Each structure stands twice: as C-alpha cells, then as structure tokens.
Amino acid sequence: MNHMINKQLNHRTIRFFKEQAVPADLLEQFIQVAQRTATSNNLQSSSMIRITDPNLRQQIAEISMQPYLATVPELFIFLVDQYRNDQIATTKNGHAPMIGMNLFFQGAADVYLTAQNMATAIESADLGTVFFGSILNDSERLVDVLNLPPYTFPLLGLGFGYPDDQPELKPRMAMNLRVGENSYPMTDDLLADLADFDEEMTTYYDSRQKNKRSDTFTNQVAQKLAIPHEKRDAIMQVIEQQGFQLKP
To answer: pLDDT tens digits, residue range 95-124?
Structure first.
C-alpha cells in the first residue's frame, strides 16, 4: 500500500493542535495544490480566504459554535465565486450575465474538490485537518463578517496544523450499503443491516477520551433530521441575496 493511500485510510479529524506555525513554504505548496485542482469548465469559480485576524476568527467561531476554530493554526474559508466571471463577462459582453443555479453548483463543486484536494496534501505532510461545515450556521452573518461581494458564497472552512491529538479512527458503515452496481444499493431491512454498525458506534463513543457521547448512528440520524435548523434552512435565501438567480 502506498504512503498516500495509507494516509487516506487513516484519516482522522483533528481538533487539538500544537502551538506550532505551519512553515511558509508548506503553506505555499498547499495553495499550489489548490490551484491545480480540477475545475468545472475551467471557470475556476471558487476562491479561498485565509483568516489570520483574531477578531474575524472569534466571530467565525461564534457563528460555528465551535470555540476551537478561533485557535487552529491555519484557517481557510472556501467560497463559491462567480464574482470574477461576472466582471469578465459584463466587461466583454457589455451587459451583466445571469448567474443562475448551474453556475452556483459549478462553483460549489469547485469548492469541495479544492478543499478536499488541499486537505489530502496537508495530511500527506503529516499535518492534521478539520473541516468546518458549521460556518453555515449563520451564512448571512458570515457574508457580512467577511464583507463578501455579490456572486460569492462561503461554503466550507478548513483548519489545519500539527496535531496534538490522535483520536480513534471513527467507524464507517459497510460499503455495500453505499456502493451499488448499475443501480441504487437497496436493502430489505436497513435498520437490521445497520445493527452491527450501531453497536460499533456506541462502543466508539463510550471509549472516547474527549467529548464522550454514547449513542447509535441510527439514533443520531433520526434526531438530526427531526430538528430543523432555522438559519441553515434559509441558506437558499442568503444565496439569492448574494445575487444568484436560483429560480428559472
């Protein structure tokens, strides 16, 4: 097994980091990897903001409701970004284009590919990573905090640095429930098929040294889907406020 596949198979989310700066040359390499990531139609419709201002970090941590976000050695926010392309097309064509759902989702794909590609590079250098989907807890406030222009939207955060933690490898469900061949991987009794995984997850949470929580996977799913999140459920409105025309 090669070095990188081994790293990927042992991926862990790191939430505790050493007080050690990421060297500038490594940081530049990670940014170069982001630059070379596949991009839909070569529109390059994503951007990143490196957050170094402690005040901004604190505000983003409050939005995310994850205090450790403020202290991760490096923090990048990834944006869907059609602002540049709007400026180019308006100048070239003499009128503003319609920036619709298709272009938004092209940018979203670029964000996720870029963030994962960068995270893989970071972990290949023996650093640890943590994704912050929680920046979407209040996307309207985050747009204001970052003073974002139209046709941009903050989609994902990525924190990284030298790990000061080695959490257990979190279990995953069997891939026969997630991989189909030529059709969706249907199952006759999903809860029965997940029973062993439920037990494994309960054992995992029981044995954690930090943030202990004893629960099953299926209970977590049921609880999360039963509780609405007012601000997250309004994300489409914020995207439209940013200028994207999501309705035909």
So the answer is: 989 999 999 999 999 999 999 999 999 999
| Structure tokens, 103 | 């272009």
CA separation, residue 63 to residues 71, 94, 101, 108, 126 (Å)? 15, 39, 26, 21, 29
Rounded to the nearest 10°, the torsion over CA 144, 149, 155, 160 is -80
Closest of 144, 140, 152 to residue 83, by C-alpha: 152
**CA angle 158-159-161, nearest 5°?**
140
Annotate 207-243 with b (16+ C-beta within 10 A) or e (fewer): eeeeeeeeebbeeeeeeeeeeeeeeeeebeebbeebb
Q: In this predicted model, what pLDDT tens digit does every residue of 12-42 receive, in sequence order?
A: 999 999 999 999 999 999 999 999 999 999 9
